[in-house]
Specification:
2 domains, 40% strand, mainly beta, six-stranded antiparallel β-barrel, Elongation Factor Tu (Ef-tu), domain 3, 4 helices
C-alpha cells in the first residue's frame, strides 16, 4: 500500500530487455540504499515493483509482461527520471490517498497550461478508466496522488503546485507523453458490489 506522496526522483541507470521482461537499475537521489531490503515493494511512476538486488549506487527491479502491457515503464531508457515511493509503514501519516501500485492503464498528455502558480495538465484517457474519475476525486498520475480538477467525456485535468512540479517528474511531461494511471480503488469495489447485487 502506498500514498501517492513521492519520496524521491530516481534515474534509470540500466534498462535491459530480457525476453518479455525489462530489468531496470534505478539510482535514487534521496532514498538511502542501505535502508532497502530484497523483496520490498517500491512504486516506480506508480507501478509497484519488487526489489531484486541492491548495489553500491543503484537497486534493481524487474517489470514483467503484464506490467509492461499495462504501464508506460517499457518506455524507460537510461537517464530517464522516475518517481519513487516506498511502501507505507503502519503508523505513517496518510497524506495522499490509498494507492495500491497496481496500474489500471495509461493516459496521454493532451494539454499543458502554465498558469504561474499552477501547472494544469489535461490527459486523454480511455473510457474504461474515465468512468472511475470524478471531479474533486483522487487519482494517481505517474505515482503522484492528485485531485481531479475537471472531467469531460474524453479527458480529465489536474493542477500541480510548484512543490509538486519541483519534486516529481510531472513538470517534465510534454504533449503526447504517456503516464501511468491508477484510479480510486473504492470506486471499482462499489461498482462491482452494486452490479453483482440481485434485483
Amino acid at each position: 500500500m502506498f500514498t501517492g506522496l513521492v519520496e524521491d526522483v530516481g534515474t534509470v541507470a540500466r534498462a535491459d530487455r530480457r525476453s518479455d521482461a525489462l530489468v531496470l537499475a534505478i539510482r535514487p537521489s534521496r532514498i538511502p540504499l542501505a535502508e532497502l531490503t530484497l523483496g520490498e515493494s517500491i512504486c516506480h511512476d506508480g507501478a509497484c515493483l519488487t526489489l531484486t538486488d541492491v548495489g553500491r549506487d543503484a537497486f534493481t527491479v524487474l517489470a514483467g509482461a503484464e506490467t509492461l502491457a499495462r504501464t508506460s515503464l517499457g518506455n524507460l531508457r537510461i537517464g530517464k527520471r522516475v518517481n519513487l515511493e516506498r511502501a507505507l509503514k503502519v503508523g505513517d501519516r496518510l497524506g495522499g490517498h490509498w494507492v495500491t501500485g497496481h496500474i489500471d492503464g495509461t493516459g496521454e498528455l493532451a494539454t499543458r497550461r502554465d498558469l504561474g502558480a499552477n501547472l494544469v495538465l489535461g490527459f486523454r484517457t480511455p473510457p474504461a478508466l474515465l468512468r472511475y474519475i470524478v471531479e474533486k476525486g483522487s487519482i494517481a498520475v505517474a505515482g503522484v496522488s492528485l485531485t481531479v480538477n475537471a472531467v469531460d467525456p474524453e479527458t480529465f485535468s489536474i493542477a500541480i503546485i510548484p512543490h509538486t512540479r519541483e519534486h516529481t517528474t510531472l513538470g517534465d511531461l510534454a504533449i503526447g507523453d504517456r503516464v501511468n494511471l491508477e484510479t480510486d480503488i473504492l470506486a471499482k469495489h462499489v461498482e462491482k458490489l452494486l452490479t453483482g447485487r440481485s434485483v
